[in-house]
Predict the structure of ATP-binding cassette domain-containing protein.
Amino acid sequence: MQVSCLNRLHYFPDKKTLFYLWKKDKRLIVYPLLKAVFASLISYFMLFFLDGLIGGRNILLIPSIFSILMLNVFVILIMHKSENLDFLLRLSFFRELSGKRIELVNEPSSWRKSQAIMDWQMHNGGPAINAYRLLEKRLTLLSSLLIAICYILFSSEIHHAFYLLLLVAFSLLLSFVFYKTEKNVSITLEKGIESLMENNRKGDYYFALLSSEFEKMKSIRSNNKNSFVEGKYSSFMNPMMRLFKKEEYEKTLIGLFEALSAILLVILFLALSSTSYSLTLCLSLMSLVLFFTSLFRGRSEVEINNERMRVYLEFLDLEKKKGKIEKGGKGIRLENVSYIYPGAENKAVDDVTFEFKRGRIYSIVGPNGSGKSTLVKLMLSLLSPCEGRIIAEEGLSFSYCPQSVTIFSFTLGENVAMKKGYDGNKVRSLLSSLDINEDTELKLGSDYESVGIELSGGQSQRVQIARSVFSSGSVLIMDEPTSRLDVKAEKRVYEEALRVKPGDTAVFISHRLSSSFYSDEIIVMDRGKIAASGSHEALYSSCALYREMFDEQKNQSGL
């Protein structure tokens, strides 16, 4: 009943948080309880046993010492076996959070919540570990209070019940005043901390621009605009740091006034009762006053942490939104598939029905913005169709070369294989076929520790193509794979990409029609719809859009 009331006062972490800790590791609940019992026995020893030496209660000596010693040994053993519960919980929380972030990495709606939780983790260990600390602190304080109350109730020295009740009432009043004051400070402080952490991310971004993101900074450096980014990096945090210091100072002052108020209340009680009391009774009264003055004061901290824990548990319950891909048949079949981007007026893909058969080579062509890349993202389950359905053969695996080129700060071989212990001969052979003859152990890109070579745009694109071919999925999808390559290099890319295993499928997306010569079937898209499909010869004679695009490119680049 008492614990239930304290929960309603937000004295303890809420039930969901406690259940999370219990499920994570029962010791996270048991250990704070043991520490609280240990603290209560220490208080018991100090108040009853020490007072017994001067008041004739020596009979309490043996059970007091025995209980304290046995519990002390037990707690030490638990501490030894716990292997630092604080650290284990922090590690578990980090793994759990990191795993969920990776699972939801393609869900933009979860990014902000995900980053906020990561910020909390970096700031104070996260809501889970903070709940564990709060539970430990609150239980210890409560246990000491219970012993103090027992001593006061059974003490023969208390003759002024009215003054004692008055003392408690004033303590509660002060606690409420401190709570209201601290709540405003805490809310402002927490907002400041969150802004500070958000600015920290901006600072990391600015520093990355200045230090390692050479590719992004080329145009800025060439125009001598470095000072603009440097100014952003050097000044972004100063206002937040001032706010942080100010609010922390106010919070410290509140705590100081609380302690002074407790001392003054006890002195006032002793003065009004006009009776001399023992030191142990004074200590008991001090424990009583400190508990009640802190009863409301710590509430804002618990409320904030409970809310953060609620957000975290909701985040853990989120599930990755998977595309509506059903299993069955052979190859991939799209039936009346449509997709519209949030906020857009027109559908990016509009009522598309098509079947990609096993063992065939396809090209998806069309003007910019015709829906080619969106169609592929739907096939890859990176987007979920708004209408229609996609049916894919059981066990299909995809190798995807996206439109944007990404080179990681790894070795050349690791950039292709994306794993350790790769087949070096296979990687070298693949790179050589794409006219890249560099050492596979060569470091690429730049990070905070080392600087590697910088590839040209065409080389970077070929490395990314090699990465998708190396992964050997049963469906190879390449989105604008040759946009940075000359005609000779483009031919090599298609020849290498077409060395697919019998039964595998390849899909090329391009507004350049050179891929058409390597394809069994060409899909022409226009305004989100499939305008026509067929072989090059059939489309050139029957599809005006395809013929117009082909003739234009033939005149420009000599297809």
Observations:
- Confidence is low (pLDDT under 50) at residues 1-8, 53-60, 213-225.
